[in-house]
């Protein structure tokens, strides 16, 4: 742990639990549970699309989209899709991919798109030497054609946050959506700093769904 960067906190579950404790933030967090067979089954029955990802991990590595379609199932890992007739077959395959790592299951959000490619947003929030926090970047990340993860290291395209909102919605939405992201960033940081003293920089991953609702996917203490 470096003093310059502040405290590192790898567990997505710990950060999610902290944010869920705040009544204003909780509605912006997709339903999230730890990966177990019964949790996966009930989440798929409830939401039909979920995303599973390592409790500790970055760069979109290990993120898998799982969909229930008709009586069957499929999952997509990077650009490869596997189909299954039974839930047991799906679960066994996912469990094999997971290895010994702990995973989370999160309700899948249908993101707004540009040219059919999903876009999400990274807001970087850094504690300044004088002690106050400041937003140093709001950027959009447009998925590489054919992929659902938007990470730049997976071929995503970087846009300004304003351009991303304008092209996926309209110019009129740019101001309000950025204001809401700033408000959620400040509020969430107060919660996280009180729970985990010593953090010094945060990267918030936001998505805006097709209806315009803002979701917090995760918060990184070592934003890339």
Word description of this protein:
With 224 residues, the chain is of the alpha+beta class. The protein folds into two domains: 12-28 and 110-220, D-amino Acid Aminotransferase, Chain A, domain 1 (2-Layer Sandwich); 32-107, Dna Ligase, domain 1 (2-Layer Sandwich). It has helices at residues 12-20, 37-47, 87-98, 161-168, 171-195, and strands spanning 32-34, 49-54, 64-69, 72-77, 80-84, 103-107, 113-114, 117-127, 133-142, 157-160, 201-208, 214-220. The strands form two sheets. The protein has a six-stranded antiparallel sheet, sandwiched between helices. The radius of gyration is 17 Å and the shape is globular. The mean pLDDT is 90.
Summary tags:
single chain; 224 residues; alpha+beta; D-amino Acid Aminotransferase, Chain A, domain 1; Dna Ligase, domain 1; six-stranded antiparallel β-sheet; 5 helices; 12 strands; 33% strand; YheC/D; YheC/YheD family protein
**Oligomer status:** single chain
- The overall average pLDDT, rounded, is 90
Instruction: Name the helix and strand elements from N-terminus to C-terminus, one letter apiece.
Output: HEHEEEEHEEEEEHHEE
Residue share in β-strands: 25-35%
When the domains are counted, the total is 2
Q: What is the CATH architecture annotation of the largest domain? A: 2-Layer Sandwich
Count of helix runs: 5
The profile of the biggest β sheet is: 6 strands, antiparallel
Shape: globular
Main structural class: alpha+beta
Question: Reading side by side through the largest sheet, how are the strands ordered?
Answer: 1-6-2-3-4-5
| Rounded radius of gyration (Å) | 17 Å
User: Termini separation (Å)?
Assistant: 16 Å
CATH T-level topology of the largest domain: D-amino Acid Aminotransferase, Chain A, domain 1
Q: Give helix % range.
A: 25-40%
């Amino acid at each position: 742990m470096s003093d310059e960067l502040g405290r590192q906190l790898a567990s997505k579950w710990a950060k999610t639990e902290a944010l869920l404790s705040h009544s204003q933030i909780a509605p912006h967090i997709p339903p999230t549970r730890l990966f177990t067979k019964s949790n996966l089954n009930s989440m798929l029955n409830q939401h039909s699309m979920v995303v599973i990802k390592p409790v500790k991990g970055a760069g979109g590595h290990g993120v898998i989209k799982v969909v229930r379609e008709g009586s069957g199932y499929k999952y997509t890992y990077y650009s490869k899709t596997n189909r299954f007739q039974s839930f047991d077959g799906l679960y066994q395959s996912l469990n094999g991919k997971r290895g010994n790592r702990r995973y989370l299951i999160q309700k899948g959000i249908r993101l707004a798109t540009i040219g059919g490619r999903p876009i999400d947003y990274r807001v970087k929030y850094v504690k300044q030497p004088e002690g106050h926090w400041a937003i140093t970047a709001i950027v959009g990340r447009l998925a590489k054609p054919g992929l659902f993860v938007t990470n730049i290291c997976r071929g995503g395209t970087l846009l300004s946050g304003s351009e991303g909102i304008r092209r996926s919605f309209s110019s009129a939405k740019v101001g309000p959506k950025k204001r809401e992201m700033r408000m959620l960033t400040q509020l969430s940081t107060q919660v996280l700093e009180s729970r985990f003293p010593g953090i010094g920089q945060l990267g918030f991953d936001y998505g805006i769904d097709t209806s315009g609702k803002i979701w917090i996917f995760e918060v990184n203490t070592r934003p890339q």
